[in-house]
Specification:
By secondary structure, the protein is of the alpha/beta class. The protein contains 22 helices and 18 strands. α6 links the parallel β8 and β9.
Length: about 525
């Protein structure tokens, strides 16, 4: 096969979870022999020159003896990482005539090359394959270790190859296969995770009911109480009450895990994710960031599930306030001078806080040692705009011996029982919101709930109107209480909230005050 002046192949550049196809051009010119890579590569990608040269020669081929220029187009788009190695090598093999350019066609190449010509797995394969499918490509070639992950995307042919030589054979090169041991991905540490049962919670019936309400409507929640009141115990049981993720949400969660290099992305996990970062976490760790590659944070990992911030007032105030926009929009946008990345951010926020730094304010068991100003300053770290977005605000106390004896004499609510109530309420919401882009009460705009035909009668909403009138609620808070009332109505199996539902919703929102 004769050499071609220019060889072309295709790879994918990821910006957040969104991929853009990149055309790789390899051209030979009559200059001093050399290898130049252009098109805004980062440091890891620039080193592809060394990896590709070694992989090509160890696979039984020869590098061009003329000057080789490899261009990554569009040139103004920043490219990161080593996943372009395979596409660069494919374009070079086309210029040398090892494979015919037409054989490469619309195939997308993703993978890092080892020096001996084998393919190493790379992160971000799932969103990259999704980008290839959206662009209408028919085939994607990935390292053998990434094949199971890539096959999670339907509607596109996935080919896993262990080496560069096998890629050339796949594209029609007349070569004898050389068996190699595929490079394995990171070891998967499978741990059996058992969802804790809600039945373990005793003596906190009101808190358990509030947790069920939060799960039914996707409402954000704050729990304030002394150490040992059960705040963390309740929060860890919330994911067990939530319904399984639908296809789109499970795929989004899988893309986030893939981008973070999770080795277990070989099947879609339909259980809602759970993230509980330490209170020393930075804004970049919670929201996401990075100076070069923009990486998602814990809030993105929790999208579709629960983000639990224990000891919430101990978090830096800018970190907490950075959550305000995602709580409204359900998206997290990270902007840098060179690029902007957008990630899913539809998480359910659960905050837990002590009533004061020593934790004993308002308890029966001890005397608070905190000065009054220190107590006020402690909870003020949770800013007003953030608190305005929290639908359920609970005050918890430690369980007394009387409450424990009473709880032991009657049956407790299990996770399975509570989840059935949540699923029934979600089904009612689905039926009510059919034909709209929303599926949970927390997502519905207030203007839609207040529109003619859906607006509650004046008698039912009188307590809510009064709270707005005297300044106890903002307009945002007014709409959030409305959503909470609709969730309570769904749990009770009625078509519209009554005055009692409005009163319960107001009580749930203002209990920690």
């Amino acid at each position: 096969m004769t050499a071609e002046p220019t060889g072309r192949s295709t790879a994918v550049a990821l910006l957040g979870l969104h991929g853009r196809l990149v055309e790789i051009e390899a051209a030979l010119t009559n200059q001093k022999p050399g290898f130049r890579l252009v098109g805004l590569p980062d440091a890891a990608l620039r080193e592809a020159q060394v990896r590709v040269r070694s992989a090509v020669e160890h696979s039984g081929f020869e590098m061009p003896r003329r000057h080789l220029t490899v261009n990554l187009s569009p040139a103004a788009l920043p490219k990161h990482g080593s996943a372009f190695d395979l596409g660069i090598a494919a374009a070079i093999l086309a210029t040398e005539g090892v494979v015919h350019p037409a054989a490469i066609g619309d195939t997308v190449h993703i993978g890092e090359l080892a020096l001996d010509g084998r393919l190493r797995p790379v992160p971000g394969v799932l969103p990259a394959v999704l980008a290839a499918r959206r662009d209408g490509r028919s085939t994607v070639v990935v390292p053998t270790a990434n094949r199971a992950e890539a096959e999670l995307v339907s509607g596109i042919r996935v080919v896993g190859v262990p080496s560069l030589r096998e890629l050339a054979i796949f594209h029609g090169a007349d070569l004898q296969p050389v068996p190699v041991e595929p490079v394995a991905g990171p070891a998967v540490r499978r741990t059996e995770y058992t969802i804790p049962d809600l039945a373990d919670v005793v003596g906190a019936d009101e808190a358990v009911e509030a947790l069920i309400v939060a799960a039914a409507g996707g409402h954000h929640m704050l729990m304030v109480g002394p150490p040992g009141a059960g705040k963390t115990m309740l929060a860890t049981r919330l994911p067990g009450l939530l319904p399984d993720l639908d296809d789109d949400a499970a795929l989004d969660a899988g893309c986030v895990r893939s981008l973070l290099g999770d080795p277990e992305v070989s099947a879609l996990d339909r259980r809602p994710p759970w993230a509980a970062p330490h209170h020393g976490a930075t804004q970049a760790a919670i929201i996401g960031g990075g100076s070069g590659v923009l990486r998602p944070g814990e809030a993105v990992r929790a999208s579709g599930g629960v983000l639990f911030l224990d000891e919430a007032p101990e978090f830096a105030v800018p970190v907490l306030d950075a959550l305000r926009q995602p709580l409204e929009s359900g998206r997290i946008t990270i902007e840098r001078a060179s690029a902007t990345a957008e990630f899913p951010g539809r998480f359910q926020l659960v905050l837990a806080a002590n009533p004061c730094p020593c934790g004993r304010w308002g308890t029966r068991e001890g005397t608070c040692t905190c000065p009054p100003e220190k107590r006020r300053r402690y909870l003020r770290r949770l800013s007003g705009p953030l608190m305005d977005r929290i639908d359920i605000q609970l005050r918890l106390d430690r369980v007394t011996a009387v409450q424990l004896r009473t709880a032991e004499e009657r049956a407790t609510v299990s996770t399975a029982q509570a989840r059935q109530r949540v699923l029934a309420a979600r089904a009612r919401a689905d039926e009510r919101l059919a034909g709209t882009p929303w599926r949970r009460s927390v997502e519905v705009p207030g203007a839609w709930l207040r529109a003619p035909g859906r607006r509650l009668d004046p008698q039912a909403r009188a307590p809510l109107d009064r709270a707005l009138e005297i300044g106890r609620l903002t307009m945002r808070g007014y709409d959030r209480v409305l959503r909470l009332a609709w969730t309570l109505a769904d749990l009770d199996g009625v078509d519209r909230p009554a005055r009692a539902h409005i009163g319960r919703a107001l009580a749930l929102r203002e209990e920690s005050a």
